[in-house]
Specification:
The protein has about 120 residues and is mostly helical. The protein has one domain. Helix content is about 75%, strand content about 0%. The chain is built from 5 helices and no strands. The radius of gyration is 15 Å and the shape is globular. The two termini are about 25 Å apart.
């Protein structure tokens, strides 16, 4: 019984994270209000948008791994969330970037290596 509750909780969490990612626009995160470096000048690892993608990929991947025990499923679903987000960005008002997908996938992979 507890396993089903945990599984449903994790699936709902993934759904909520996907909705959150859809509402976050990468352009809004990189708006420059003072004399900071532009998004093109900032190293990729320091860009807030890429950090968010990394965190979401890692979270989804770890949640799937903990609920299924499969590292492959965790990585695949974590990366798929990033791919779906970028496809939605491409169709809507967001900004689709390959680096966003890469950041999500790296997060999905690296979190599985942490025990």
């Amino acid at each position: 019984m507890r396993h089903n509750f945990l599984k449903n909780f994790i699936l709902n969490l993934i759904f909520a994270v996907c909705l959150l990612c859809k509402s976050v626009n990468g352009a809004a995160l990189s708006e420059n209000t003072n004399n900071e470096l532009s998004n093109e000048q900032t190293p990729i690892i320091l860009q807030k948008d890429k950090q968010l993608h990394f965190f979401v990929g890692a979270s989804v991947s770890k949640a799937i791994f903990l609920s299924t025990g499969s590292m492959i499923a965790g990585f695949f679903i974590g990366s798929s969330v990033g791919a779906i987000k970028e496809l939605l960005d491409k169709q809507g008002e967001g900004v689709a970037e390959t680096n966003d997908f890469i950041a999500t996938s790296i997060g999905a992979l690296l979190i599985l290596l942490i025990k």
